[in-house]
């Protein structure tokens, strides 16, 4: 087994922490659904069942409109959901595609293994700090969802409320879509699509 570098260790630790707090937000969406919908918990469980986070957010958005939530909380929950969805997109790409470290210390993740055609090739480049920033936002997203759903006063959140409303730290990493013009240089003839072989 090859030795793990300090850079890789910091990446693995950051990813593990990121996934942990992502799951905490998913749990917050589930436990808060009944509160947003103003229905008994057993009914809420029957409705949402094993819904994914994106599905839960869509349902909560609909409930908010139907129940006419006050303007301040409606605006806040939209901001929170928008940021979570941006982080979820980053999470899906990195977790399902994996990543490799580059010589400059950044990480590279692409759909090279799963793309259907060369034209659909895409990749992202990011840093460990991007992961840390997303994690910090997830911690605050979790608290802000629960605060709104359960109408918690700020004093009830004590020290956890510190920095709760600061600007988001994670900035969406850019998705690169270079198309097919540069892809042939990355694929050997043995694994190129049949239509491209001579």
3D structure, described in words:
By secondary structure, the protein is of the alpha+beta class. The protein has one domain (6-185). It is 55% helix and 6% strand. It has 6 helices and 4 strands, in the order ααααβββααβ. It has helices spanning 6-37, 41-48, 53-67, 71-97, 128-149, 154-157; strands spanning 100-101, 107-110, 123-126, 175-176. A 4-stranded antiparallel β-sheet has the order 1-2-3-4. β1 (100-101) and β2 (107-110) form a beta hairpin. α1 (6-37) crosses α2 (41-48), α1 runs parallel beside α3 (53-67) and α3 packs antiparallel against α4 (71-97). The longest helix has 32 residues, at 6-37. The model is unreliable at 188-193 (pLDDT under 50).
Structural classification = alpha+beta
- Integer average pLDDT: 88
**What is the first-to-last residue Cα distance?**
39 Å
Identify low-pLDDT runs: 188-193
* Strand order, sheet with most strands: 1-2-3-4
Number of helices: 6
What series of H and E elements makes up the topology?
Answer: HHHHEEEHHE
Count of individual beta strands:
4
Total separate domains = 1
Main β-sheet, in a few words? 4 strands, antiparallel
This entry's quaternary arrangement is single chain
Percent of sequence in beta strands? 5-15%
User: What is the radius of gyration?
Assistant: 21 Å
Estimated helix fraction: 40-55%
């Amino acid at each position: 087994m090859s030795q793990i570098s300090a850079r890789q260790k910091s990446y693995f630790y950051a990813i593990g922490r990121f996934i942990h707090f992502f799951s905490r937000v998913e749990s917050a969406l589930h436990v808060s659904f009944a509160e947003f919908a103003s229905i008994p918990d057993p009914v809420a469980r029957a409705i949402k069942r094993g819904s994914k986070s994106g599905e839960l957010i869509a349902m909560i958005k609909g409930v908010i409109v139907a129940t006419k939530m006050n303007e301040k909380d409606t605006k806040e929950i939209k901001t929170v959901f928008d940021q979570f969805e941006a982080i979820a997109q980053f999470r899906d790409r990195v977790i399902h595609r994996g990543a490799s470290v580059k010589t400059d210390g950044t990480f590279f993740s692409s759909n090279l293994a799963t793309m259907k055609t060369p034209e659909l090739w895409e990749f992202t480049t990011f840093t460990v700090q991007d992961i840390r920033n997303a994690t910090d936002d997830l911690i605050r997203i979790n608290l802000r969802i629960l605060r709104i759903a359960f109408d918690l006063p700020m004093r009830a959140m004590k020290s956890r409320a510190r920095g709760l409303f600061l600007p988001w730290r994670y900035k969406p990493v850019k998705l690169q879509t270079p198309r097919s013009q540069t892809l042939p240089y990355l694929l050997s003839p043995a694994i190129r699509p049949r239509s491209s072989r001579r």
